[in-house]
Protein backbone atom coordinates (compact mmCIF):
# COMPACT_ATOMS: atom_id res chain seq x y z
CA UNK A 1 0.00 0.00 0.00
CA UNK A 2 1.41 3.30 -1.05
CA UNK A 3 1.59 6.02 1.59
CA UNK A 4 1.36 9.68 0.68
CA UNK A 5 4.57 11.60 0.79
CA UNK A 6 5.05 13.54 4.03
CA UNK A 7 6.07 16.59 1.92
CA UNK A 8 2.84 16.53 -0.02
CA UNK A 9 0.77 15.98 3.03
CA UNK A 10 2.27 19.00 4.73
CA UNK A 11 1.66 21.35 1.74
CA UNK A 12 -1.14 23.77 2.49
CA UNK A 13 -3.16 25.53 -0.23
CA UNK A 14 -2.06 29.15 -0.73
CA UNK A 15 -4.61 31.75 0.29
CA UNK A 16 -6.08 33.72 -2.64
CA UNK A 17 -5.09 37.38 -2.58
CA UNK A 18 -7.92 39.91 -2.63
CA UNK A 19 -7.79 42.40 -5.51
CA UNK A 20 -8.43 46.02 -4.62
CA UNK A 21 -11.11 47.70 -6.76
CA UNK A 22 -8.96 50.86 -6.78
CA UNK A 23 -6.23 48.96 -8.60
CA UNK A 24 -8.65 48.17 -11.42
CA UNK A 25 -9.76 51.80 -11.60
CA UNK A 26 -6.15 52.99 -11.78
CA UNK A 27 -5.40 50.48 -14.52
CA UNK A 28 -8.38 51.67 -16.58
CA UNK A 29 -7.37 55.31 -16.03
CA UNK A 30 -3.82 54.62 -17.19
CA UNK A 31 -5.11 52.87 -20.32
CA UNK A 32 -7.48 55.74 -21.12
CA UNK A 33 -4.73 58.32 -20.65
CA UNK A 34 -2.39 56.32 -22.87
CA UNK A 35 -5.05 56.00 -25.58
CA UNK A 36 -5.81 59.71 -25.35
CA UNK A 37 -2.13 60.58 -25.59
CA UNK A 38 -1.69 58.42 -28.68
CA UNK A 39 -4.78 59.90 -30.32
CA UNK A 40 -3.68 63.44 -29.45
CA UNK A 41 -0.18 62.87 -30.79
CA UNK A 42 -1.65 61.46 -34.00
CA UNK A 43 -3.96 64.46 -34.40
CA UNK A 44 -1.10 66.93 -33.89
CA UNK A 45 1.00 64.98 -36.37
CA UNK A 46 -1.70 65.23 -39.03
CA UNK A 47 -2.16 68.95 -38.32
CA UNK A 48 1.56 69.62 -38.65
CA UNK A 49 1.67 67.79 -41.97
CA UNK A 50 -1.38 69.61 -43.35
CA UNK A 51 -0.76 73.00 -41.70
CA UNK A 52 2.78 73.48 -40.36
CA UNK A 53 1.77 76.75 -38.68
CA UNK A 54 -0.49 74.97 -36.18
CA UNK A 55 1.90 75.40 -33.25
CA UNK A 56 2.71 79.06 -33.84
CA UNK A 57 0.33 80.22 -31.12
CA UNK A 58 2.61 78.57 -28.53
CA UNK A 59 5.39 81.05 -29.29
CA UNK A 60 3.76 83.66 -27.07
CA UNK A 61 4.48 81.51 -23.99
CA UNK A 62 8.18 81.00 -24.75
CA UNK A 63 11.13 83.41 -24.39
CA UNK A 64 12.39 85.04 -27.57
CA UNK A 65 15.42 82.75 -27.62
CA UNK A 66 13.26 79.58 -27.71
CA UNK A 67 11.03 80.08 -30.77
CA UNK A 68 9.07 77.26 -32.36
CA UNK A 69 10.40 76.95 -35.88
CA UNK A 70 7.94 77.12 -38.76
CA UNK A 71 8.08 74.96 -41.83
CA UNK A 72 5.99 75.43 -44.95
CA UNK A 73 6.43 79.22 -45.03
CA UNK A 74 8.33 80.99 -47.75
CA UNK A 75 11.40 82.86 -46.51
CA UNK A 76 11.02 86.63 -46.04
CA UNK A 77 11.48 88.66 -49.22
CA UNK A 78 11.94 92.29 -50.19
CA UNK A 79 9.45 93.91 -52.55
CA UNK A 80 12.11 93.78 -55.26
CA UNK A 81 12.42 90.01 -54.81
CA UNK A 82 8.63 89.58 -54.74
CA UNK A 83 8.19 91.53 -57.98
CA UNK A 84 11.00 89.63 -59.70
CA UNK A 85 9.50 86.28 -58.69
CA UNK A 86 6.06 87.34 -59.97
CA UNK A 87 7.46 88.53 -63.29
CA UNK A 88 9.09 85.14 -63.82
CA UNK A 89 5.63 83.57 -63.37
CA UNK A 90 3.98 85.97 -65.82
CA UNK A 91 2.30 87.99 -63.05
CA UNK A 92 2.63 91.50 -61.62
CA UNK A 93 2.44 93.09 -58.19
CA UNK A 94 -0.28 95.69 -57.79
CA UNK A 95 -0.36 98.64 -55.41
CA UNK A 96 0.02 97.40 -51.80
CA UNK A 97 -2.88 98.26 -49.49
CA UNK A 98 -1.60 99.04 -45.98
CA UNK A 99 -3.56 97.61 -43.05
CA UNK A 100 -3.33 98.37 -39.34
CA UNK A 101 -0.52 97.12 -37.13
CA UNK A 102 -1.08 93.59 -35.91
CA UNK A 103 0.52 90.90 -33.77
CA UNK A 104 3.26 89.01 -35.58
CA UNK A 105 2.13 85.77 -37.17
CA UNK A 106 5.52 84.23 -36.37
CA UNK A 107 5.96 84.89 -32.65
CA UNK A 108 2.46 86.07 -31.63
CA UNK A 109 4.06 88.86 -29.57
CA UNK A 110 5.67 91.57 -31.69
CA UNK A 111 3.70 94.39 -33.32
CA UNK A 112 4.37 94.53 -37.07
CA UNK A 113 3.00 96.23 -40.18
CA UNK A 114 0.55 94.39 -42.42
CA UNK A 115 -0.41 94.87 -46.04
CA UNK A 116 -2.49 93.23 -48.75
CA UNK A 117 -0.75 92.84 -52.08
CA UNK A 118 -2.93 92.36 -55.20
CA UNK A 119 -1.41 89.97 -57.72
CA UNK A 120 -2.28 90.96 -61.29
CA UNK A 121 -2.45 89.11 -64.57
CA UNK A 122 -2.92 90.69 -67.99
CA UNK A 123 -5.96 89.66 -70.02
CA UNK A 124 -5.76 89.51 -73.80
CA UNK A 125 -7.80 90.53 -75.67
CA UNK A 126 -9.37 93.06 -73.33
CA UNK A 127 -11.37 96.27 -73.25
CA UNK A 128 -10.48 99.06 -70.84
CA UNK A 129 -8.40 97.83 -67.90
CA UNK A 130 -6.43 94.76 -68.97
CA UNK A 131 -4.92 93.79 -65.61
CA UNK A 132 -7.17 91.69 -63.39
CA UNK A 133 -6.58 90.66 -59.78
CA UNK A 134 -6.05 86.90 -59.55
CA UNK A 135 -4.77 86.65 -55.97
CA UNK A 136 -4.55 88.60 -52.73
CA UNK A 137 -1.53 88.02 -50.51
CA UNK A 138 -1.25 89.01 -46.87
CA UNK A 139 2.24 90.15 -45.86
CA UNK A 140 3.76 91.22 -42.56
CA UNK A 141 6.96 93.15 -42.04
CA UNK A 142 9.66 91.11 -40.31
CA UNK A 143 11.84 92.10 -37.38
CA UNK A 144 14.62 89.61 -38.00
CA UNK A 145 16.23 91.57 -40.86
CA UNK A 146 15.90 95.15 -39.65
CA UNK A 147 19.40 95.51 -38.25
CA UNK A 148 20.58 97.48 -41.26
CA UNK A 149 18.22 100.43 -41.67
CA UNK A 150 19.70 101.23 -45.08
CA UNK A 151 18.62 97.93 -46.56
CA UNK A 152 15.23 97.29 -48.15
CA UNK A 153 12.72 95.91 -45.62
CA UNK A 154 11.67 92.28 -45.72
CA UNK A 155 8.14 90.93 -45.71
CA UNK A 156 6.79 87.55 -44.63
CA UNK A 157 3.92 86.10 -46.67
CA UNK A 158 1.26 84.89 -44.23
CA UNK A 159 -1.52 83.71 -46.54
CA UNK A 160 -2.90 83.94 -50.06
CA UNK A 161 -6.47 84.05 -51.38
CA UNK A 162 -7.17 83.12 -55.04
CA UNK A 163 -9.55 85.54 -56.75
CA UNK A 164 -11.99 84.71 -59.54
CA UNK A 165 -14.46 87.38 -60.63
CA UNK A 166 -18.26 86.94 -60.65
CA UNK A 167 -19.89 85.47 -63.74
CA UNK A 168 -21.39 87.77 -66.35
CA UNK A 169 -24.95 86.49 -65.84
CA UNK A 170 -25.09 87.42 -62.15
CA UNK A 171 -23.65 90.89 -62.82
CA UNK A 172 -26.20 91.86 -65.50
CA UNK A 173 -29.14 90.14 -63.78
CA UNK A 174 -30.70 93.36 -62.35
CA UNK A 175 -31.09 94.92 -65.82
CA UNK A 176 -32.02 91.80 -67.78
CA UNK A 177 -35.66 91.09 -68.50
CA UNK A 178 -36.56 87.56 -67.43
CA UNK A 179 -38.20 87.05 -70.84
CA UNK A 180 -35.08 88.12 -72.72
CA UNK A 181 -33.07 85.55 -74.58
CA UNK A 182 -29.79 87.21 -73.56
CA UNK A 183 -29.38 86.33 -69.89
CA UNK A 184 -25.63 86.80 -69.84
CA UNK A 185 -22.89 84.18 -69.90
CA UNK A 186 -20.90 82.13 -67.42
CA UNK A 187 -17.72 84.04 -68.31
CA UNK A 188 -15.96 85.40 -65.23
CA UNK A 189 -15.64 89.19 -65.27
CA UNK A 190 -12.36 90.71 -64.04
CA UNK A 191 -11.94 92.36 -60.65
CA UNK A 192 -9.50 95.21 -61.13
CA UNK A 193 -9.58 97.48 -58.06
CA UNK A 194 -8.95 96.89 -54.35
CA UNK A 195 -9.99 99.48 -51.78
CA UNK A 196 -10.80 99.74 -48.10
CA UNK A 197 -14.17 100.92 -46.83
CA UNK A 198 -13.69 104.16 -44.95
CA UNK A 199 -15.88 106.28 -42.72
CA UNK A 200 -18.62 104.61 -40.70
CA UNK A 201 -17.82 100.91 -40.92
CA UNK A 202 -18.44 98.00 -38.52
CA UNK A 203 -15.84 97.62 -35.81
CA UNK A 204 -15.31 93.91 -36.42
CA UNK A 205 -12.08 93.52 -38.38
CA UNK A 206 -11.28 95.24 -41.69
CA UNK A 207 -13.81 95.59 -44.52
CA UNK A 208 -12.53 95.74 -48.10
CA UNK A 209 -13.98 96.02 -51.59
CA UNK A 210 -12.87 94.33 -54.81
CA UNK A 211 -14.57 95.91 -57.81
CA UNK A 212 -14.78 96.17 -61.58
CA UNK A 213 -16.83 97.83 -64.33
CA UNK A 214 -18.57 96.51 -67.43
CA UNK A 215 -20.68 98.20 -70.11
CA UNK A 216 -23.99 96.90 -71.46
CA UNK A 217 -25.39 99.18 -74.15
CA UNK A 218 -25.43 102.64 -72.60
CA UNK A 219 -25.29 101.32 -69.02
CA UNK A 220 -22.08 101.11 -66.99
CA UNK A 221 -22.52 98.43 -64.34
CA UNK A 222 -20.35 98.32 -61.24
CA UNK A 223 -19.80 94.93 -59.64
CA UNK A 224 -17.54 93.42 -57.06
CA UNK A 225 -16.97 91.45 -53.92
CA UNK A 226 -16.95 92.48 -50.28
CA UNK A 227 -14.04 91.07 -48.28
CA UNK A 228 -13.54 90.83 -44.54
CA UNK A 229 -10.21 90.44 -42.78
CA UNK A 230 -10.06 89.05 -39.24
CA UNK A 231 -6.67 90.20 -37.86
CA UNK A 232 -6.91 87.94 -34.82
CA UNK A 233 -6.79 84.83 -37.00
CA UNK A 234 -5.04 86.37 -40.04
CA UNK A 235 -8.05 85.17 -42.06
CA UNK A 236 -9.45 86.77 -45.22
CA UNK A 237 -12.98 85.82 -46.36
CA UNK A 238 -15.37 86.89 -49.14
CA UNK A 239 -18.86 87.09 -47.61
CA UNK A 240 -20.72 88.82 -50.47
CA UNK A 241 -20.78 89.52 -54.23
CA UNK A 242 -22.60 92.66 -55.37
CA UNK A 243 -23.71 94.46 -58.54
CA UNK A 244 -25.02 97.99 -59.19
CA UNK A 245 -26.63 99.03 -62.51
CA UNK A 246 -26.07 102.71 -61.61
CA UNK A 247 -22.31 102.19 -61.30
CA UNK A 248 -22.07 102.85 -57.55
CA UNK A 249 -19.93 100.98 -55.05
CA UNK A 250 -21.60 99.81 -51.81
CA UNK A 251 -21.54 102.14 -48.82
CA UNK A 252 -21.90 101.62 -45.08
CA UNK A 253 -24.70 103.64 -43.48
CA UNK A 254 -26.83 103.38 -40.38
CA UNK A 255 -30.27 102.76 -41.85
CA UNK A 256 -32.35 100.84 -39.31
CA UNK A 257 -31.63 102.85 -36.17
CA UNK A 258 -29.98 99.89 -34.45
CA UNK A 259 -26.77 101.79 -33.75
CA UNK A 260 -24.70 99.77 -36.24
CA UNK A 261 -23.96 100.58 -39.90
CA UNK A 262 -25.51 98.44 -42.61
CA UNK A 263 -24.20 97.79 -46.12
CA UNK A 264 -26.29 99.55 -48.79
CA UNK A 265 -26.18 98.44 -52.44
CA UNK A 266 -27.93 100.62 -55.02
CA UNK A 267 -29.56 98.47 -57.72
CA UNK A 268 -31.83 101.16 -59.15
CA UNK A 269 -32.91 100.55 -62.77
CA UNK A 270 -34.22 103.57 -64.65
CA UNK A 271 -36.71 105.49 -62.50
CA UNK A 272 -37.46 102.53 -60.24
CA UNK A 273 -35.40 102.62 -57.02
CA UNK A 274 -34.10 99.27 -55.85
CA UNK A 275 -31.81 98.69 -52.90
CA UNK A 276 -30.30 95.77 -51.03
CA UNK A 277 -29.27 96.14 -47.41
CA UNK A 278 -27.12 93.79 -45.32
CA UNK A 279 -26.25 93.76 -41.64
CA UNK A 280 -23.34 92.16 -39.82
CA UNK A 281 -24.14 89.04 -37.80
CA UNK A 282 -21.99 86.46 -36.03
CA UNK A 283 -21.60 82.78 -36.83
CA UNK A 284 -19.85 79.88 -35.15
CA UNK A 285 -16.75 79.85 -37.34
CA UNK A 286 -13.51 80.51 -35.46
CA UNK A 287 -11.33 81.82 -38.34
CA UNK A 288 -13.91 84.49 -39.18
CA UNK A 289 -17.09 84.58 -37.05
CA UNK A 290 -18.68 87.35 -39.16
CA UNK A 291 -21.17 87.25 -42.01
CA UNK A 292 -23.49 89.59 -43.92
CA UNK A 293 -27.20 88.89 -43.61
CA UNK A 294 -29.81 90.50 -45.91
CA UNK A 295 -32.46 92.74 -44.39
CA UNK A 296 -35.97 92.48 -45.83
CA UNK A 297 -37.05 95.88 -47.11
CA UNK A 298 -40.61 94.72 -47.77
CA UNK A 299 -41.51 95.05 -44.10
CA UNK A 300 -43.04 98.49 -43.47
CA UNK A 301 -42.08 100.58 -40.49
CA UNK A 302 -45.76 101.34 -39.67
CA UNK A 303 -48.38 98.72 -38.97
CA UNK A 304 -50.99 100.45 -41.15
CA UNK A 305 -52.69 98.89 -44.21
CA UNK A 306 -52.80 102.25 -46.02
CA UNK A 307 -49.03 102.68 -45.57
CA UNK A 308 -48.39 99.16 -46.89
CA UNK A 309 -50.57 99.92 -49.92
CA UNK A 310 -48.64 103.13 -50.62
CA UNK A 311 -45.32 101.27 -50.47
CA UNK A 312 -46.62 98.54 -52.77
CA UNK A 313 -47.76 101.11 -55.35
CA UNK A 314 -44.39 102.90 -55.17
CA UNK A 315 -42.48 99.66 -55.71
CA UNK A 316 -44.63 99.03 -58.78
CA UNK A 317 -43.70 102.43 -60.22
CA UNK A 318 -47.12 103.98 -59.57
CA UNK A 319 -45.83 107.14 -57.93
CA UNK A 320 -48.94 109.33 -58.18
CA UNK A 321 -51.36 106.81 -56.61
CA UNK A 322 -48.76 106.08 -53.93
CA UNK A 323 -48.48 109.76 -53.08
CA UNK A 324 -52.27 110.05 -52.88
CA UNK A 325 -52.40 107.19 -50.36
CA UNK A 326 -49.67 108.83 -48.27
CA UNK A 327 -51.42 112.20 -48.36
CA UNK A 328 -54.68 110.62 -47.24
CA UNK A 329 -52.82 108.88 -44.43
CA UNK A 330 -51.27 112.20 -43.41
CA UNK A 331 -54.68 113.93 -43.31
CA UNK A 332 -55.98 111.24 -40.97
CA UNK A 333 -53.20 112.16 -38.57
Q: Topology, pairings included?
A:
Blueprint (H helix, E strand, L loop, with lengths): L5 H5 L10 H30 L28 H10 L3 E2 L3 E2 L3 E2 L7 E2 L1 E9 L8 E11 L13 E8 L5 H5 L20 E4 L9 E11 L2 E12 L4 E10 L6 E3 L8 E5 L8 E8 L7 E6 L9 H11 L3 H13 L2
Antiparallel strand pairs: 1-5, 2-5, 3-4, 5-6, 6-7, 8-9, 9-10, 10-11, 12-13, 13-14, 14-15
Helix pairs in contact: 5-6
Work out the oligomeric state of the chains in this entry: single chain
Evaluate the radius of gyration.
Answer: 33 Å
Q: Which structural class should the secondary elements be placed in?
A: alpha+beta
**How many β-strands, per DSSP?**
15
Mean pLDDT: 80
Number of helices: 6
Apparent shape: extended
> What fraction of residues sit in β-strands?
25-35%
Helix coverage percent of residues?
Answer: 10-25%
What is the string of helix and strand elements? HHHEEEEEEEHEEEEEEEEHH
Low-confidence stretches: 57-69
Report the major sheet.
Answer: 5 strands, antiparallel
**Distance separating the two termini:** 130 Å
Keywords:
333 residues, alpha+beta, four-stranded antiparallel beta sheet, 29% strand
How would you explain this protein's 3D organization?
It is extended and about 85 Å long. The strands form four sheets. Strands 1, 2, 5, 6 and 7 form a five-stranded antiparallel sheet that branches. A four-stranded antiparallel sheet has the order 8-9-10-11. Residues 57-69 have low confidence and may be disordered. The chain has six helices and 15 strands. The protein is of the alpha+beta class and 333 residues long. It has helices at residues 6-10, 21-50, 79-88, 168-172, 305-315, 319-331, and strands at 92-93, 97-98, 102-103, 111-112, 114-122, 131-141, 155-162, 193-196, 206-216, 219-230, 235-244, 251-253, 262-266, 275-282, 290-295.
